[in-house]
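On clarity, I found the account of how folds are encoded harder to follow than it need be. What matters is that the chain and its backbone geometry are given together, residue for residue. For the editor and my fellow referees, an illustration may be useful. For illustration, here is how one protein appears when written out as sequence plus structure tokens:

___
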Amino acid sequence: MIKKNLKETVKVIEYELKNAKNLYNSSCINWKGKTLDSKEYYTEVISRELLKAEKLVLLEKIDQIDRVNYHVNTHDGQHNDDTNRAEEIFAKRLKGKKLEKLGVVIEYQVPLKEKCSDDAGKIDLVTSTNESVYIVELKYIGNKETLLRAILEIWTYYKQLNKVNFLNSFKLLEQNKTENIRRAVLLSVGCNAYNEAKELSERPALKQLAKALYVDIFLLEESVTIIELR
């Protein structure tokens, strides 16, 4: 169990933010519970720090990775369950489905790397509506990561994305501009981030950070209904 006071928590996030592109991977982003002295959620203290203008600037400066083609040739529409990651299996099964407000899932597990040495992950889902294209970070049943991590993860991927090449890869450029690319987190019942999203009234700084980074939050209920939090 993490035991930090307010000042210690602030010092940790200031240090970790020196490498902004890997911030979402930092252990402090997944700290649960509350500080020893101020009794605030760690994620609230960290979110409040990240909302400071000079820290938001650092998040804005995450470099783009110039991948040429984001289409994944190995995704042939068949759902091969040879992976032991339930989240990846579920993402595969969503391809082709229409999700309320997020639109049709047109791809899953889209890599951001152009070369092996690039330090980047994969976009869980890409969805398309009549007005927008969403890149989506999915958190599935059993995932213990925080909502803060999900928000920072999809923000980082958005910054690393070559947006023109991305739209071209899926033949979406004609009807969409790069400004139409939106980011979202999709949270399943039974994951930690889902529970935190249900408590956003108790987490005002986290909610404000999501708005500042223009990350939409959706809840994936057992019936695959999507609820947008406002």
Summary: Strands lie at 98-99, 103-111, 122-128, 133-139, 181-188, 215-220, 226-228. The chain has one domain: 66-228. Residues 133 and 151 are 17 Å apart (CA to CA). Residues 66-228 form one domain.
